[in-house]
Amino acid sequence: MPSSVNIVLVHGAFADGSGWEGVYRALKKSGHKVSVVQHATETLVGDVAATNIVLDAQDGPVVLVGHSYGGVVITEAGNHAKVKALVYIAAFAPDAGESVSSLIANPPPGAAAPPILPPRDGFLFLDTAKFHDAFCADVDADKAAFMADSQLPWGLGALGGAITKPAWKSKPSWYLIAGGDKMIPPPAQKLMSQRAGSTVVEVAASHAVYVSQPGTVADLIEKAAAAIG
């Protein structure tokens, strides 16, 4: 892959950037320059600002990657001039005026309800007892327990943050659908990826596919890197 292509990884809700370690290592092994955004998931505006700081520091074209709520962040931050491609990993891909709140308001019939607890001081958490099954069913129990006990609080301001200009309308995108996802229903992922005109790959995996199958995720990112390289 061309060394001039940079890859920036953006995590989603209830997790931080450390979850990208497997993907990061796979991409670095292939010779890419990889950066991981550590944003607070408190507000969309703040998360986009944190992502833009990392994008400003890149020395060439960027493939911008988002998992879950991170897809909302890259949809807005992807308008940055250095971003040449977007990659959604089991992620939200909102249109203008949409937010996570609006996208989840009418779930597909029969979709699993994520075990999100009532807000505490403006933040959301997943029920730790149900975290493994809902978020990362294909990750081993010890790792899932650590992920549950170290989850990052998700701010209601991030949940309700609306997109002003969706980058996927002007830039090419790739989308990995997680067929066993219990957080974002696969039918919803299919609809969003089709609407965005994304190149789509579907795999049998949980919502945490970037943790359980880092090689598969890295392969899709490399396809995007090759396309812009």
3D architecture notes:
With 229 residues, the protein is an alpha/beta fold. It has a single domain, classed as 3-Layer(aba) Sandwich (Rossmann fold). The chain is 37% helix and 17% strand. It contains ten helices and eight strands. The strands form two sheets. The protein has a six-stranded parallel β-sheet with strand order 2-1-3-4-7-8, with helices on both faces. A two-stranded antiparallel ribbon has the order 5-6. Helix 1 crosses helix 10. The protein is globular. The termini are close together. The mean pLDDT is 96.
Shape: globular
**SSE pattern, N- to C-terminal:** EHEHEHEHEHHEHEHEHH
CATH class: Alpha Beta
Q: What's the pLDDT, averaged over the residues?
A: 96
Radius of gyration from the CA trace? Answer: 16 Å
Work out the helicity level. 25-40%
Q: Give the tally of structural domains.
A: 1
CATH-assigned fold name: Rossmann fold
**Number of helical runs?**
10
Largest sheet at a glance? 6 strands, parallel
Strand content: 15-25%
- First-to-last CA distance: 7 Å
In total, the number of strands is 8
* Biggest β-sheet: strands ordered side by side in the sheet: 2-1-3-4-7-8
Based on helices, strands and strand pairing, what is the structural class? alpha/beta
Q: In CATH, what is the homologous superfamily?
A: Alpha/Beta hydrolase fold, catalytic domain
Low-confidence stretches: none
CATH architectural label: 3-Layer(aba) Sandwich
Compile the SSE list and pairings.
Elements (H helix, E strand, L loop, with lengths): L5 E5 L10 H9 L3 E5 L6 H13 L5 E6 L2 H8 L5 E7 L10 H4 L19 E2 L3 H8 L5 H9 L4 E2 H4 L13 E6 L7 H11 L2 E5 L5 H4 L1 H15 L1
Parallel strand pairs: 1-2, 1-3, 3-4, 4-7, 7-8
Antiparallel strand pairs: 5-6
Helix pairs in contact: 1-10, 2-3, 5-6
